[in-house]
Design brief:
4 helices; single chain; 102 residues; mainly alpha
């Protein structure tokens, strides 16, 4: 006697999948409805919060000097070098060190 090879889903397997999908849909609908009604009864977050009256103090930032020629640029470099911690660690020396490999 020849054995038939069958492939595919049986009706029982299909019904199990349908039942699981319906159950997931019912649970999802219930959660959606309960969240929908809970949000309409609760006050919004914006009504709970209070606005802060603190204002930060005004900060004055000096404007950058306008450089019109090379002497202005040299003066700016000298000012930057004066803020250095050590004399060998000036901004122009650091720039020359980084750019020397190019």
């Amino acid at each position: 006697m020849k054995k038939l090879s069958q492939s595919g889903f049986t009706i029982v397997e299909t019904m199990i999948v349908v039942v699981l999908l319906v159950a997931a849909g019912i649970v999802g609908y219930y959660v959606w409805q309960s969240n929908k009604t809970n949000h309409t009864n609760k006050p919004t977050i914006a009504s709970k919060t209070t606005t802060s009256t603190y204002q930060s103090p005004p900060v004055t930032v000096p404007t950058a000097p306008q450089i019109n020629n090379s002497s202005d640029l040299n003066n700016a470099i000298q000012v930057l070098n004066q803020t250095s911690v050590s004399s060998n660690n000036t901004d122009s020396n650091q720039l020359n060190t980084y750019t020397s490999s190019f």
